[in-house]
Amino acid sequence: MLRHFLILSCLLLPCLCGRAAESAPRPRNVVLVTLDGVRWQEVFGGADPTVMKFLARGAPVEGTALYQRYWAPTAEERRRKIMPFLWGTLVERHGWIAGDPAKGSDIEVTNRFHTSYPGYAEILTGYAHDEAIVDNKAQRIPVPTVLEFVRRELNLPKSAVAVFASWDRFNDFTEHEPGSIMVNAGFTAYASGDPALRELSVAQSEMVAWADERFDYPTQRFALDYLKHEHPRLLYIGLGDTDDYAHDKQYELMLKSLRRADRFLADLWAQLQSMPRYRDNTVLVVTCDHGRGKMPEYWDEHNEELTAAKNIWLAVAAPGDARRGEIEGGPTLYQNQIAATIAQAFGLDYGKQVPQAGKPIALRAAP
């Protein structure tokens, strides 16, 4: 009898263990992408007719190359010319987007400066640091970030929480304790088994338009390669071409860089969906650090005096969240809620560690 029991157990155990393994939940992942300084006006409306008219300097706007390339009769058509993946795939089939004041869907920063470092610090820590971070000068972020929090709480290896960014200031504000997470920002070299990426790592410092920021293309390529080979649980990708071209007052180049960012989002999404550990198991968050002026003459500026620069936008695609398309109405959301939302995606309560942080945004639609 005992012999028969042992034989039966040997036959059944592999099956039972296999079923248990199949039913065990996969660890959740989060990918955060920021598009520096991208106004809600271009995200929701494409090329801004008032800006195009302003840039025509009194000439017929219809005769400009900018108008001919980007004009369409409706905001919905114009925005799809710039961001076809965001509007045609991501928020239509997989997620939602908020931040259009015209739809009563407001998202605002809580820091008073409406500039980059204060915005990124708010995103990554869950609250404004107006006494300590007043501009973009190089300084170590004064408290741990949600990136460090997730790594510590989940006891992850350093490689599992990674940052790839174009602006070198990301070395300062993504981690309070240097070396606690993997950061590749600015012109930092990237080691890869791919000869083309090794060549790109060398070439990035030779293709310089801005002293403290590389072009987004190397950042994008390095991030996708790292995702493929290192499989991080939390990946942050910070793109910056849009902000730099805006500061250079190059509206068409800004639009082109936003179009390239949308293509990158499509590539990123395709790669996530092609990998079993990420497919239908990853929260994708896309947002910006600050807005810009509302009036056409201030489309390129952002500062404490321009109150319109406090308005930002947010797109989220999360498994289990049934919401799709544009959010209309509802309470105002804030930039300081993003950190807790990232932690919540991992099943973590950020508020217990940082009680002054904004509350998480629910990632599931109300029943």
Strand-helix topology:
Layout (H helix, E strand, L loop, with lengths): L1 H22 L5 E7 L4 H6 L3 H7 L9 H6 L4 H8 L1 H11 L1 E3 L8 E2 L7 H10 L20 H9 L6 E5 L4 H4 L8 E4 L9 H9 L12 H15 L3 E6 L1 H7 L3 H24 L7 E6 L26 E4 L7 E2 L6 E2 L3 H8 L4 H4 L14
Parallel strand pairs: 1-6, 1-7, 2-9, 3-10, 4-5, 4-6
Antiparallel strand pairs: 2-8, 7-8
Task: Describe what this molecule looks like in 3D.
By secondary structure, this protein is of the alpha/beta class. It has 15 helices and 10 strands. The strands form 2 sheets. The protein has an 8-stranded mixed sheet with strand order 5-4-6-1-7-8-2-9, sandwiched between helices. Strands 3-10 form a two-stranded parallel ribbon. Helix 5 crosses helix 6 and helix 12 runs antiparallel to helix 13. The N terminus is likely disordered.
How would you concisely characterize the structure shown here?
It is built from 15 helices and ten strands. The chain is an alpha/beta fold. The protein starts with a helix and ends in a 14-residue tail after the last helix.
Structural class: alpha/beta
Instruction: Indicate the low-confidence ranges by residue numbers.
Output: 1-23
Helix content: 40-55%
Major beta-sheet overview: 8 strands, mixed
End-to-end Cα distance: 53 Å
Strand arrangement within the widest β-sheet reads 5-4-6-1-7-8-2-9
What is the total tally of β strands?
Answer: 10
Tell me, rounded to a whole number, the average pLDDT.
Answer: 93
Q: Determine Rg (CA atoms, Å).
A: 22 Å
Number of helices: 15
H/E topology pattern: HEHHHHHEEHHEHEHHEHHEEEEHH
Shape: globular
Strand content: 5-15%
